[in-house]
């Protein structure tokens, strides 16, 4: 009797641990569904980037264009990407009615006092980490390169996907002193008085991207 019980237990264990066979082949059962990563190529004509810089006596703001880039999404969640920004396209909307002062400001921002655009015409942001929050929001961390200098930057982003179109919005605060942009900065100079230009500036982003032919135009 004991031997019969032991034989039954062994038979049950073998049945549980051994794959079932059908027609001489293993039947793996239901396959697991693996989420597929999708790459969305940035539409530079529809995407809007807006910079804002402040000083003691006022502030200036205006658009700058994305040059190229892509974002990757897996399961509806942002997972990575690269955005290249063309600093040569920078303009000021608050001075649009005064060409003389507009051109003076923009030329100064493009000079070696600020962004050295002739030597470094683009800035690049490469995502290194994404921390998902509730809903479709996430804290995005990436390497921001300006003037050949790279520092990590973290800011919140909201992502929505509809069909083959992705929209990502966010606002990054950037410390220009970390990129050796010294002009008018209290981080480098004393006794500036009302000539101080604050180190932090912001970039509001409204990125539109599409999955069509996304893999053919990745930013390096």
CATH-derived topology: Lipocalin
Distance between the termini: 74 Å
Question: What spatial form do the alpha-carbon principal axes imply?
Answer: globular
The CATH architecture assignment turns out to be Beta Barrel
What's the helix and strand layout?
Layout: H1 2-17, E1 21-22, E2 25-26, E3 37-42, E4 48-55, E5 58-74, E6 77-86, H2 99-110, E7 122-132, E8 137-146, E9 149-162, E10 165-175, E11 197-210
Antiparallel strand pairs: 1-2, 3-5, 3-11, 4-5, 4-11, 5-6, 6-7, 7-8, 8-9, 9-10, 10-11
Properties at a glance:
single chain; 220 residues; mainly beta; Lipocalin; nine-stranded antiparallel β-sheet; two-stranded antiparallel ribbon; 11 strands; 13% helix; globular; disordered C terminus
Describe what you observe in this structure.
The chain has one domain: Lipocalin (Beta Barrel). Strands 3, 4, 5, 6, 7, 8, 9, 10 and 11 form a nine-stranded antiparallel beta sheet that branches. Strands 1-2 form a two-stranded antiparallel sheet. It is built from two helices and eleven strands. The longest helix has 16 residues, at 2-17. With 220 residues, it is mainly beta. A hairpin with a 2-residue loop joins strand 8 and strand 9 (149-162). The protein has helices spanning 2-17, 99-110, and strands at 21-22, 25-26, 37-42, 48-55, 58-74, 77-86, 122-132, 137-146, 149-162, 165-175, 197-210.
Summary, kept brief:
Helix content is about 15%, strand content about 50%. It has about 220 residues and is mostly beta strands.
């Amino acid at each position: 009797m004991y031997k019969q019980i032991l034989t039954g237990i062994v038979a049950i264990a073998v049945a549980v641990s051994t794959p079932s066979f059908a027609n001489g082949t293993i039947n793996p059962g239901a396959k697991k569904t693996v989420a597929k990563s999708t790459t969305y190529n940035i539409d530079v004509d529809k995407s809007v980037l807006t910079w804002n810089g402040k000083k003691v006596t006022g502030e200036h703001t205006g658009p700058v264009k994305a040059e190229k880039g892509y974002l990757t999404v897996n399961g509806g969640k942002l997972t990575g990407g690269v955005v290249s920004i063309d600093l040569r396209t920078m303009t000021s909307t608050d001075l649009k009615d005064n060409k003389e002062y507009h051109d003076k400001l923009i030329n100064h921002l493009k000079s070696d006092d600020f962004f050295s655009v002739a030597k470094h015409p683009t800035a690049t942001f490469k995502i290194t980490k994404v921390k998902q929050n509730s809903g479709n929001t996430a804290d995005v961390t990436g390497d921001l390169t300006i003037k050949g200098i790279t520092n990590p930057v973290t800011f919140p982003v909201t992502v929505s996907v509809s069909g083959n179109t992705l929209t990502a919005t966010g606002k990054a605060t950037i410390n220009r002193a970390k990129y050796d942009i010294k002009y008018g900065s209290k981080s480098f100079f004393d006794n500036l008085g009302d000539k101080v230009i604050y180190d932090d500036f912001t970039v509001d982003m409204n990125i539109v991207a599409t999955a069509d032919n996304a893999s053919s135009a990745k930013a390096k």
